[in-house]
Amino acid sequence: MDTRSNFHQSLEELQADLLKMGTLVEEAIYQAVKSLARMDVKMAEETIEQDDKIDQMMLEIEERCLRLIALQQPMAGDLRVIGMAMKIVTDLERIADHAVDIAKTTRRLAGETLVKPLVDIPRMADIAKEMLRDALTAFVEKNVARAEGLAEKDDQVDKLYTEIFQEIIGLMGTDLSVNRQVTHLLMVARYLERVADHATNIGEWVIYMVTGQRKDLNL
């Protein structure tokens, strides 16, 4: 295999590792929200422990990117792909941190009965996970249209966040234990809103990678 073929194989492996990290991050969000809905502390602890593996993947992908730049001296489009990969792993790592934040909320509320069944928060999580999947697929496919589609889903997440905020304000009263719990739930909704923002960030990197133009998907 010649040097150029080796380089393109390395790029494909880089993208494959990025998708693996994305799958782990998506699973972390799923498990964190599920642990909260079921008040399952064991599942929350597993989510928190998994974060070390995600952090390690980020470091390995960053090192691989730097090695490719140093050894292969890529130009133009290839250099842009590697540069975007380094930015995307940062967004993925921050999404995983929000999964940990949610899992820690489960731990803090351990033993309590939720003031209401969780409906909109899992819905937010589902849309945010779809956004993450779409963003990474757009990166691999260099698909600008798929990346631009993230803006509509981000609007859905923002709408749910506003509805949750209004509902939680309505639940607050003189019972301090209720106020404490709903405040935690509002923070969880905020974490998920941030997850969606990181997914739109990835979409914006994809658009820049393909077109060289910057576009704000989170208006």
UniProtKB/TrEMBL annotation:
Record-annotated PhoU domain positions: 18-105, 121-206
Keywords recorded for this protein, A-Z: Cytoplasm, Phosphate transport, Transport
Membrane-spanning parts: none
One GO BP annotation of this record: negative regulation of phosphate metabolic process
SUPFAM superfamilies associated with the record: PhoU-like
Cell location: Cytoplasm
Pfam family, one: PhoU
GO cellular component terms given for this protein: cytoplasm
Source domain of life: Bacteria
Function, as annotated: Plays a role in the regulation of phosphate uptake.
Subunit structure: Homodimer.
Family named by the database record: Belongs to the PhoU family.
Name the record gives this protein: Phosphate-specific transport system accessory protein PhoU
